[in-house]
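Incident log, support desk, overnight shift.

02:14 A customer reports that sequence design results differ from what the structure should imply. Their input is reproduced verbatim below. On-call engineer (initials T.W.) acknowledged and began investigating.
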């Protein structure tokens, strides 16, 4: 498994998937190797983690080069030191390294992620690169993985390319909320946002809408992002004294207490496919109000409420505070829906795909990578 920050999972959806799937595959007797970037180089990663073998390699600390530089080193290490039966490459941005893997006869599946070229952090050159990388992933992968139906539809429409639809899992989160006292909070006494500080996650719209409301309960914001100083400053400028910016919270038990104790969870992600923080929220029985986009509706269905503007957020926050019982009911319905997203089943789908890759079975050969000219999502 390469192309991510690796494990232990401390950042995003890819890392969560690698940890949850990789650990289960190792438990089932497979040899699993994960390439990792270490956020704390002074403390080396262990050689084994949850049954997975870890290879720690450096990366250029730059927004545009960090992923590519690390994946390049990972590909070189893989081709020189080990020849796996199958490789999972995460992120279509890593498509330039696929031809080398294919030339070495390493069967490879690419998890294409969301519509990266729509992310606000990329300029014109970055968006063009991601669009080209999508086409290269289609051309040079033996299989493509999509984590949401909307992503699968996009590749079908843009490239006439089939995908394996494998979503993330939603853990059922039950934890002792007494630790909220460490933050001066109690269950049902706050609203919550957990998000990387990127424009397409709309943290600024959530904060702006909340501040416009007459909310009595505080808004707790968990998150940050490297290379996002300007956006972070915007969020801070919009906040008032009711907004509590906690930064990153790496203590999973405390983070789970926040999910379980929130009156309302506000989710602003819009371009990344199925989002693990949203799945964790419904697994914790949180009532969710989400940015109105197909990926979020796919996960929440009728258990969620939806917004597009700060004005919408203001109204929803006020509504939640006026009827806490209704939010508890919505949260219970969301937790029941979370059972559709099971990590054991997800791991089985990855295992099945790995076996198909390894034996050269019915993995569809990719189309040319040329766009069909059809209307994209």
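02:41 Re-run completed on a clean worker. Output:
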């Amino acid at each position: 498994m390469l192309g991510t920050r690796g494990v232990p999972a401390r950042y995003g959806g890819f890392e969560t998937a690698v940890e949850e799937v990789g650990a289960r595959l190792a438990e089932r007797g497979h040899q699993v190797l994960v390439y990792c970037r270490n956020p704390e180089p002074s403390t080396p990663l262990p050689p084994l983690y949850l049954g997975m073998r870890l290879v720690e390699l450096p990366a250029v600390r730059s927004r545009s080069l960090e992923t590519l530089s690390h994946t390049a080193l990972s590909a070189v290490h893989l081709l020189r030191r080990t020849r796996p039966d199958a490789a999972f490459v995460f992120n279509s941005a890593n498509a330039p390294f696929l031809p080398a893997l294919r030339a070495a006869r390493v069967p490879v599946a690419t998890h294409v992620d969301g519509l990266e070229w729509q992310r606000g952090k990329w300029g014109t050159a970055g968006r063009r690169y991601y669009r080209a990388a999508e086409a290269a992933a289609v051309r040079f992968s033996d299989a493509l993985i999509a984590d949401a139906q909307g992503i699968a539809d996009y590749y079908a429409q843009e490239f006439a390319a089939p995908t394996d639809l494998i979503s993330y899992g939603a853990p059922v989160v039950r934890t002792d909320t007494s630790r909220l006292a460490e933050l001066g909070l109690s269950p049902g006494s706050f609203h919550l946002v957990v998000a990387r500080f990127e424009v397409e996650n709309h943290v600024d719209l959530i904060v702006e809408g909340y501040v416009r409301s007459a909310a009595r309960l505080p808004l707790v914001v968990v998150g940050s992002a490297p290379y996002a100083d300007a956006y972070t400053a915007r969020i801070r400028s919009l906040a008032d004294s009711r907004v509590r910016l906690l930064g990153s919270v790496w203590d999973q038990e405390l983070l789970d207490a926040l999910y379980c104790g929130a009156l309302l969870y506000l989710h602003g992600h819009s371009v990344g496919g199925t989002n693990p923080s949203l799945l964790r929220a419904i697994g914790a029985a949180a009532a969710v109000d989400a940015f109105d986009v197909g990926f979020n509706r796919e996960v929440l269905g009728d258990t969620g409420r939806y917004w597009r503007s700060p004005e919408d957020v203001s109204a929803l926050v006020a509504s939640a505070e006026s009827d806490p019982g209704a939010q508890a009911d919505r949260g219970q319905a969301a937790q029941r829906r979370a059972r559709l997203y099971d990590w054991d089943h997800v791991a089985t789908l990855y295992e099945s795909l790995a076996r198909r890759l390894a034996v050269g079975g019915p993995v569809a050969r990719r189309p040319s990578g040329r766009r069909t000219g059809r209307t994209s999502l």
